[in-house]
């Protein structure tokens, strides 16, 4: 683990690398309407030290983007008959980046066999609805691959075996414009990766004439990616342009997420992702403390407290034996005291709707009290300036009375990927506590590669899916305004950090569940089933939303994956530490 502690942040980056393959232990859930899937991740040698924060040089060359996009066509030309004959036992590797195995082809498991679904998701009909943002990006990628291969550049319908085929000629005028925008964006990225900054700037000038943050979804996402590329060029050339560093955003993302802003509440209300994670995650907790009298929940980042309103509601309905005596929540946060006080007010307001007495006090930390059916509900908030200040004794685990300890990590771990010493410290402290379950919510995408082109393609498809969900779920009027604020304040700045920043400034780093799975193994963590009740909760939440046909739920191993039109968005997983009673964990080095 030396590579976690000895690094020079000025010239190195770290990428969690995981090992992935088709999961032969996948279990379907037909009763609850889950669509089964198989997802390919990074291929890695079994004897490699996987799951690490490996130091990777930032100055490594980015491969041409068309070599990445060529993998779409390669994968799509693999037929079911090829698989049955064993012609493609080893799928084509993504030499330039992990791309479009998930974006270009759908994987399903049917009747116990692994097959690749060859049907085209873009069925062009005279009465069809407009193509999604994701589909536009796929078509643009296909055309770029075709152009780079010098095959019939002006007639993409002649691409042999290509699944879009003649449909490209059926695009509407707006769709043709959107595909052109996306093509120019991809070409600009390749110019930037080759340090052809003047050519890239010229392409971005053309893009700026055709896109706007108030336009079509494709226009909007291209607008924010164009801004990020401008900033990237400024950083590389030492200049400051009006659309690059001169327009650099200074919004505190953590503060926006923490507060009860109108856009955050609108997203929570209109888009199913956060409610799926909250209801399913709380159900996992309830399942693991079903027979406990005293429950202690360690919340790694209380954020805006929405998830605990779900817990309060669940506990308020508990009627079985043994009676619940105490629920204690210790929330770890680096937010300001006044922001936490606002969280207390929101919890107090919600408790009143359930006829639950609730009060909070600001002491050495901040403590909230609520009485639920005779049981004390106690929340203590610990404010830390640095995760390295975290010690086991701050949790006050109550040795006199046995407590069932649960850890809930809601999008916290990703914030420490750029600080591996903090992440490792946290894991060691949690292992010393040995909770009965650890529930983790994370982003399901890889935005942590040191390779610029890699980060671009992954983030392009991820945020294309998110922009598409915002467009479908949040209509005009107040919701439209909240959507624009979300795209600008949250996603626009995140895209800039992913693409333009390096070192510690690049603090938006996401990795997939396969990577976390490999990393957790180092600390003796074992993945556990979420439970049928939790999965059923997820399905019930999806059914409540008008966009339910676009939001699908799948399993990767034992983890729940939330997808939007096939693109992975979030993961929910549960873990336990494998720690025999006779093992005495030495924390003297912590």
Automatic annotation (TrEMBL):
It holds the Pfam family GRAS. Residues 1-22 are annotated as: Disordered. Keywords: Transcription, Transcription regulation. A motif (VHIID) lies at residues 295-299. The keyword Transcription applies. Residues 342-374 are annotated as: Leucine repeat II (LRII). Residues 500-576 are annotated as: SAW. Belongs to the GRAS family. This is Uncharacterized protein. The lineage of its organism: Eukaryota, Viridiplantae, Streptophyta, Embryophyta, Tracheophyta.
């Amino acid at each position: 683990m030396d590579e976690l502690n000895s690094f020079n942040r000025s010239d190195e980056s770290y990428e969690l690398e995981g090992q992935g393959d088709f999961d032969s232990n996948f279990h379907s859930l037909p009763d609850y309407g889950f669509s089964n899937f198989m997802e390919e991740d990074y291929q890695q040698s079994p004897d490699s030290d996987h799951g690490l924060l490996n130091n990777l040089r930032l100055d490594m060359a980015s491969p041409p983007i068309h070599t990445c996009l060529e993998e779409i066509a390669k994968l799509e030309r693999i037929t079911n008959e090829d698989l049955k004959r064993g012609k493609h036992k080893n799928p084509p590797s993504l030499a330039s980046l992990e791309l479009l195995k998930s974006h270009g082809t759908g994987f399903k498991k049917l009747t116990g066999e692994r097959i690749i679904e060859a049907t085209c998701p873009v069925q062009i009909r005279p009465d069809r609805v407009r193509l999604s943002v994701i589909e536009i990006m796929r078509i643009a990628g296909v055309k770029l691959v075709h152009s780079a291969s010098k095959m019939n550049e002006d007639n993409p319908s002649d691409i042999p075996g290509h699944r879009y085929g003649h449909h490209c000629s059926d695009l509407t005028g707006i769709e043709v414009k959107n595909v052109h925008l996306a093509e120019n964006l991809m070409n600009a990225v390749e110019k930037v990766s080759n340090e052809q900054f003047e050519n890239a700037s010229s392409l971005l000038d053309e893009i700026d004439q055709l896109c706007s943050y108030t336009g079509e979804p494709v226009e909007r996402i291209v607008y924010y990616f164009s801004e990020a590329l401008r900033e990237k060029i400024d950083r590389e050339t030492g200049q400051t342009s009006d659309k690059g560093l001169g327009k650099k955003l200074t919004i505190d993302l953590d503060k926006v997420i923490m507060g009860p802003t109108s856009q955050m509440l609108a997203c929570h209300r209109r888009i199913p992702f956060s409610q799926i994670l909250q209801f399913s995650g709380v159900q996992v907790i309830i399942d693991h403390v079903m027979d406990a009298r005293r429950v202690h929940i360690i919340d790694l980042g209380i954020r805006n407290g929405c998830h605990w309103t779900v817990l309060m509601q669940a506990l308020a309905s508990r009627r079985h034996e043994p009676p619940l005596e105490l629920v204690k929540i210790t929330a770890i946060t680096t937010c300001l005291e006044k922001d936490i006080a606002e969280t207390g007010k929101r919890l107090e307001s919600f408790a009143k709707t359930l006829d639950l007495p609730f009060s909070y006090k600001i002491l050495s930390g901040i403590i909230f009290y609520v009485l639920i059916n005779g049981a004390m509900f106690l929340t203590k908030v610990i404010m830390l300036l640095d995760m390295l200040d975290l010690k086991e004794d701050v949790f006050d685990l109550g040795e006199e009375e046995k407590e069932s300890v649960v850890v809930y990590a809601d999008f916290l771990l990703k914030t420490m990927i750029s600080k591996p010493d903090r992440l490792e410290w946290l894991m060691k402290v949690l292992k010393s506590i040995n909770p009965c379950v650890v529930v983790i919510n994370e982003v399901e995408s890889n935005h942590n590669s040191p390779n610029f082109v890699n980060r671009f393609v992954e983030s392009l498809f991820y945020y294309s899916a998110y922009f598409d969900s915002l467009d479908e779920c949040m209509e005009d009027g107040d919701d439209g305004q909240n959507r624009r604020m979300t795209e600008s304040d949250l996603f626009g700045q995140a895209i800039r950090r992913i693409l333009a920043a390096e070192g510690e400034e690049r603090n938006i780093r996401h990795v997939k569940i396969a990577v976390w799975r490999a990393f957790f193994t180092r600390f003796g963590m074992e993945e556990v089933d979420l439970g049928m009740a939790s999965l059923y909760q997820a399905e019930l939440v999806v059914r409540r939303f008008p966009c339910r046909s676009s939001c699908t739920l799948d399993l990767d191993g034992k983890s729940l994956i939330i997808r939007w039109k096939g693109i992975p968005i979030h993961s929910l997983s549960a873990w336990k530490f494998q720690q025999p009673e006779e093992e005495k964990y030495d924390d003297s080095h912590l």
